[in-house]
Amino acid sequence: MLQIEGLTRRFGAKIAVDGVSLAVPAGQMVGVIGRSGAGKSTMLRMVNRLTDPCEGRVRFEGTDVTALRGRALRDWRMRCAMIFQQFNLVQRLDVLTNVLVGRLNRRPLMTSLLRMFTAEERAMALAALDRFDLAETALQRADTLSGGQQQRVAIARALLQEPRIILADEPIASLDPRNSRTVMDALRGVNREGITVLVNLHDLATARDYCDRIVALNAGRIVFDGPPAALTAARIREVYGVTEEEFAEEAAAAVGAPPPRHAVPA
Question: What topology is assigned to 2-255 in CATH?
Answer without folding.
Answer: Rossmann fold (3.40.50)
